[in-house]
Structures are given as structure tokens and as C-alpha cells.
What we know:
By secondary structure, the chain is of the alpha+beta class. The protein has five domains: 6-151, Beta-Lactamase, CATH 3.30.450.20; 157-281, Beta-Lactamase; 283-447, Beta-Lactamase (2-Layer Sandwich), CATH 3.30.450.40; 555-713, Heat Shock Protein 90, CATH 3.30.565.10; 728-856, Response regulator (Rossmann fold, 3-Layer(aba) Sandwich). The strands form six sheets. It has a six-stranded antiparallel sheet with strand order 13-12-11-16-15-14. Strands 2-1-5-4-3 form a five-stranded antiparallel sheet. It has a five-stranded antiparallel sheet with strand order 7-6-10-9-8. A hairpin with a 5-residue loop joins β9 (253-263) and β10. α14 (426-516) crosses α21 (747-760) and α16 (560-575) packs parallel to α17 (596-613). Bound molecules: adenosine-5'-diphosphate and magnesium ion (MG). Adenosine-5'-diphosphate (ADP) is lined by residues 609-610, 613, 651, 653-654, 656, 660, 664, 669-672, 677-683, 706. Residues 605, 608-609, 681 line the site of magnesium ion.
Amino acid sequence: xxxxxxxxxxxGKMGALLREHDWSRTALGPLETWPQSLxxxxxxxxxxxxxxxxxxxxxxIMIYNDAYSVFAGGRHPALFxxxxxxxxxxxxxxxxxxxxxxxxxxxxxxxxxxxxxYRTGRAEQVWMNLDYSPVPDERGNxxxxxxxxxxxxxxxxxERRQAAERERQRAIFQQMPGFVGVFTGPDHIFEYVNDAYVxxxxxxxxxxxxxxxxxxxxxxxxxxxxxxxVYATGKSFxxxxxxxxxxxxxxxxxxxxxYEPLRDDGHKVTGIFVGGYDVTDRVRAEARRETxxxxxxxxxxxxxxxxxxxxxSEILGQALKVSRVGYGAIDPDAExxxxxRDWTAPGVETLAxxxxxxxxxxxxxxxxxxxxxxxxxxxxxxxxxxxxxALKSRSARSFVNVPTLEHGRLVAVLFVNHxxxxxxxxxxxxxxxxxxxxxxxAVERSRNEAALRDLNATLQNRIAAALAEQASMxxxxxxxxxxxxxxxxxxxxxxxxxxxxxxxxxxxxxTQSRVRxxxxxxxxxxxxxxxxxxxxxxxxxxxxxxxxxxxxxxxxPTDVNQLVTGMQDIIQRAVGPTIAFxxxxxxxxxxxxxxxxxxxxxLLNLCLNARDAMPNGGKIxxxxxxxxxxxxxxxxxxIPEGQFLSLCVTDTGVGMPPDVVARxxxxxxxxxxxxEGTGLGLSMVYGFARQSGGQVRIYSEVGQGTTVxxxxxxxYGELSGDDEPATAADMFPSGHSETVLVVDDEPTVRMLxxxxxxxLGYVAIEAADSVSGLKLLQxxxxxxxxxxxxxxxxxxxxxxMADAARVTRPELKVLFITGYAENSxxxxxxxxxxxxxxxxxxxxxxxxxxxxxxxES
Length: 857
Ligand code: ADP
Ligand code: MG
């Protein structure tokens, strides 16, 4: 065994291999013979940790170290000492070039040189950094090539993967619907933008330019500042619906986006990632929806079409940021637009008024047809170009006209943008149409509702009136039914009673008359007594008739104040000295149309009741007043609406509890001891007041006193004032020979009247029934006056007979005498001219005076 040369000492496994190798069979010869240059080089290689191989001689005999043996893989150890072109056949050409260059004295260097090797029997793609330099021999000529081989496959593959990943991401970004961009450096230089970014921005050149260069119009919109801040702070920023205005557009767009800082390995910010979406459509749709909601809220409670249209104008004006929104009526014939009211932005003058249209271009023809018109720029639009100056003078550079309402006349809403051009977007136009449509609906609705409200009110009123009427009728019916029952009873009684009384009274008076003439003696006492009884009976009859509402009233225009004044003495005497009496008459009291004696009777009755309520004395106050009863008050009082006067009697007596008030008008209702009260006073007053078209009301408080008021309808006319009571003077014969026909079935009454007539100097003719009466009336006998009962046998009543007689004697004067007043037959006191009525029984003087008055009139 040859002793190992010192250069090969150590050198790891390869050192050992070198020593064992039989070099004698190679071109190098045994180790001992190797030249010094070779020895030095090999010693260097073996001690290096970097993979190094020495390619010696023309053949490139391979001597390598441990590190290279690892690189050689399956080729080692056969590779050791082999010729390089044979040891690596798959890269023989490559190595051939290496050998030629190296032995020629040149060097070679490769970075990440890709080669396909078969180190394990399979093709293997590898990357290497290769460094070749010549190794000189003792004479300085290149004798071999030393190669430093560093495999970089792992790194290259990792880099490739990273690149591929980046590429994949880029592809994803590229196609994303949102926009993506990457800025680097503090000046935000574009490094990358995706397709969406390009599309949205509307420009092409980005990469390598700063954001300020690419988007100069963003100055003042806040974006630069945000980027600077994100870069400086390293904090990301997120925005929602941020407005952005790019130069190509006339309107804001809105974007959701994020600025995310990008960092290097040292965590230092190097750039900014931006990603986001254009949300303009969504924002506009929301704005539109909000506008419509506002509109709906605002016009919800409005009822006036003008108010609704104005509210819509205001909302549209604010939503669209225009200068003016007006509405008005287009008169197609006059070719005018009358702007009723317009909403204007602050500082813009109103244009309300009438505007002639013809001067403003051909669009007015479509306007007259009610078409929707939008004009972006009056100078550019063919319909308005010629009239642009006129339109601009009314500050209409851009506008929309939309027909809103059609109710016989066309109304347009006019949008005018001040002096700048407005390109109406589809969103704008859709909003305008929608607002117009809703306004129209609201106006229709308000009109319908108004009509409905009116209808409803009318119905309600009618229902209320019907209910009130029904209630009052029910009330009246109850009251009158009560009265009716008694009335039926007493009315019939009174009729017979009255006829009887008339007979008695007449007989007595005749007798008295004879006595006065001296034909009979000494009967005066009885006669006076009899007459007293007759008067009392007659008074009772009157009361009965009054509450049965069958009495004959002789309503006359009456000054009630005067009537009360005339009664004052009688009342004071009736109530006695312990009771003070005061009358407070209203100056300017309306006249009433009322029966005098019944009113006097009623007043007296009320005062007597007051007296009874004040056994220890007190005060009676009588007051008159004018009352104007409206529908409500009239309903309350159960009388027709209108003007009334009141006559109220107030006492300071014991008062009436409610149950007594409720029943006080009932006939025969009395709280007084038997023999004292008849219970007919108030019922008489009630019957009289109702029959006179008025009412009676009681207001009372127990312990305080009572007020009873009679309401009487106002009389619209003059008071005549010639109502003197009859006097005995009228009893003297007047010496005329006028003829009077007396028709009555009661012989006593006939006789009485005939006597009166004779005493007055008239000629009397008699008839007992209507047939014989009419016969006389239709004859040519002279008849100046017909005095007739109303209830007559013979098929006709007195009234019918009189009417029949007037066919041939139209001027015939008639005096009806009646006890049981068939009011309806006599027209309820309204008699034809030349007709009069008297109630039985009557004093002779009254009858005489009346007959005389009629004949002489
Ligand atoms: P009479 O007086 O005969 O009792 P009226 O019909 O006049 O009958 O009155 C009926 C009832 O009404 C009386 O009994 C009394 O209870 C009550 N009344 C009438 N007027 C008054 C009054 N001024 N004060 C208190 N109670 C009265
Ligand atoms: Mg009474």
C-alpha cells in the first residue's frame, strides 16, 4: 500500500475515497505522480463545504468533495474519477462547452441554470448556480476546470410557486366586479388596477403614475388626504357610499371601498391596496325611495289639492337639487301657463304668474297635448334652440314638464334648473314621473275624500235632524196624547155645556132687558145671581177648552208689554198685599200674534200659582224678552226654529221637585188640597201656548222659587192699535135698516141674536139649518150680514154654507158664532176678509158692538 500523500490527508469521505482510488489506471497516473498544482487544488476542494468538482485534463476527470457527492445523488460514487462527459451523459454538450471554455482560459457563470439530470435514474429538473474557472498547471497553462455547483432548485420552485400564486390572485382581481388597485410609496403610485377600476375611472394609463396625476379632479374631494393618512398611520380605512365626482360626469357617483395598507417583511408600510364597489345605483334607488316616503308622509294629511301639489314640488326640488319646481295650469287655447305656486331654492325668485308659451319653442305643442317633456339644454335641443334666450331669461336652462292633473284643464309641473345644464338621468326622470303619479293619486283621493266628507256630513245632519225630529215628535206625541184623552172628554162636554149656557145667559139678558124697559118688575136679584153662575161656568168651560186645544182663538197682533201693564192692577189684587209684584218689560219687544184674553188668562194663572207657592209672602217678577232660537235651541224647546218672545213669571216660593215639574202640565194634576187646586191652570197655559205656535217651560229649584216662561212666535207686522173694548154706548140703536140673516139650530140663541139686532135697529131673518139658510142666501133678499153657528144640521156646516153663499154674494159679510170651535173649519183663526168669529157664550154688549162694527165697516 502506497503511503497517502499529505494533500489528501483528512478531506472527509471523499479524502478517503481519493486515497483508495486506483489512479494508476487513469490519465492522471498514481497520486504520487500528480503535479503540485493538481495536488493543491484537490486539497482545497476536499476541505470546502461548498459543492466543488475539479474537471482535470482534456477529459475532465472528476474529483469532488463530500458536498458535491451529496449533489451527485445516485451517480456517486461511480462518478468519482470518471470523465465528465461520460459521468453526466445527459448534459454532455453543456459540459463539453465548459471544458472548452475553461481549458481555453475562460470562466463561466450561470445563475439558476435549468438542467435535466438523471441522478436517481429518473429525469429531474434542477436549477443551479454554476461557476467555472480554469486551474493552471506549473507552467501556468489551464490544465483543468474547477466548478462550484450550488443547487437552487428548491428556491427556484418556491419562487415559481409564489409567482404563480401572484398571477392567480391578479387574475382573480382582474375579473372581480369590484374595482381593485394597488398603490406604492408615499406618493401613491399606481402599481396595479383591475378591469373594473379601468372601467369606472374612464381612463387607461395608470401604472407608474401617481394618483394625483391620474385623478386631478379628486382635489378637494378628500381622497388624497385619506390615502396619505392610511399610508402614514398604517391603519386601514373603510367608506360607505362616499360621493365621488369624476370629470366626465355631471353627477355624483357613490362608492363603498377599503384602503388597506400593504407592508414589507419588516412590517413597514410600502403601499396601499384599494378595493370597492360602485354603489351609485343603490344609493340613488334609496334616495328615490326616501323621497317617495317623504312625499307620502308629507301629503298624507293634506286635503287641499294646491297644498298637495306644493308639497310634491318642494320634495322634488330638494331631492333633485334644482332651482325651481312650480306647478300650474296650461291653457291650450290661450297658450299660457299659469304658474299657481312654485317652490324655489334659496335665493331664486318666484315666477308665479301667467307666462305666454308661444315664444318658448315648439315643445309647447307636446305640452298642450299633455306629454312628458325633458330638455337638458335649451341651447342644444332642437325644440328650444331658437327660443333659448327667452327661456334662459326665465332661468330655464334645463327643465322637465310633466302633466300632473287633468280636470278639464291641464296642469304641468315644471322643473327648471337655474343656469347650468342638467342632463336628466333616467333615475331623475323616473323619480319625477313617480312623484307626479303619486301627486295625482293624492289629489284625486283628497277630492274624493272631500266629496265623501260632504256627503257624510249631509247624511249625518239628516240623520241627526231625523232623530231629533223623531225624538221631539215622540215627546210631543206623548204630551198631546195625554192632552188628547182629556180633550176628547172635556171637548164634547163643553160643547153641550156651552150651548146650554148660551141659552141661560141669553134668557137672563133678555129678561134683564125687559126689566130695564120697565115691562117686568123685581127680577133683578135672581138675574144677577144667575149671571154670576153662568160666568163661573163659562170660565170653567174656557179652561177645559184651552187645554183640550179646541178653543177658538182670536190671535191678534199684540203688544205683550202693554197687555201685562193693563193686567197689573188685577194681578196685584189677586195675589194680595203680602206679595210684591214687579214687571220688567223689554223695550223694543217684538209683537206677538196671540189671543188676548187667553194670554191674560194664562198670565193670571201663573201669578195665582206663584201666590200659592208663597204662603208667607214674597215677590213675583214678570219679564218679557226677545228670543232667537237656533236649530238646537228650537229642538230643545220643541218648537220651530225662529224668533220668539218670552213672557216669564218668576216667584220666590217653595219651588217644584223634578217629579212635580214632569207632571205639572197634566190636566187635573195638583198638589194642592181638595177644593183648592183644580190641576187645570198649567194645562190650560200649555194648551194655549202650543196652539199659538209657542211653548211653555218650567225652571224651578226647590226652596228657591220657580220661573214659568211662555214663548210666543214673533209677529212680523205693524200693530193696529184700534182694539177698543166694547162699551155700553154701542148698545144704542143706530137706526139703519140693514138686514141680517141668523142661522142657528138653537132657538134660544136665534132668539137672543134677533133681539140684539132689533135693538140695534137692524132687520133680522132667521133660519134653523144650513139648507134653509142657503136658500135665503141664494135668493135675492137683501142680506148685509150672515150670523151663523158653525155646527149646523142640514148637511153643511156654517163655513161651507158661507162659502157657497159667497159664490153669488162675494161681498157677503159673515160672523161665525161657535162654542165648540171647529178651528180647522175656520182656518185656525185665519179667516177670509169680511169674515169674523165669536165664541159662545158672549156678553150682549160684545155681540152688539161686533155686529155693528162689521156692518158699518
Ligand atoms: P193647581 O194650581 O190647581 O194645582 P196647576 O196646573 O196650576 O194646578 O198647577 C199644577 C201643580 O204645579 C200645582 O199643584 C203645584 O204643585 C205646581 N205648581 C204650579 N206652579 C207652581 C209654582 N209657581 N210654584 C210651585 N209649584 C207650582
Ligand atoms: Mg193653578
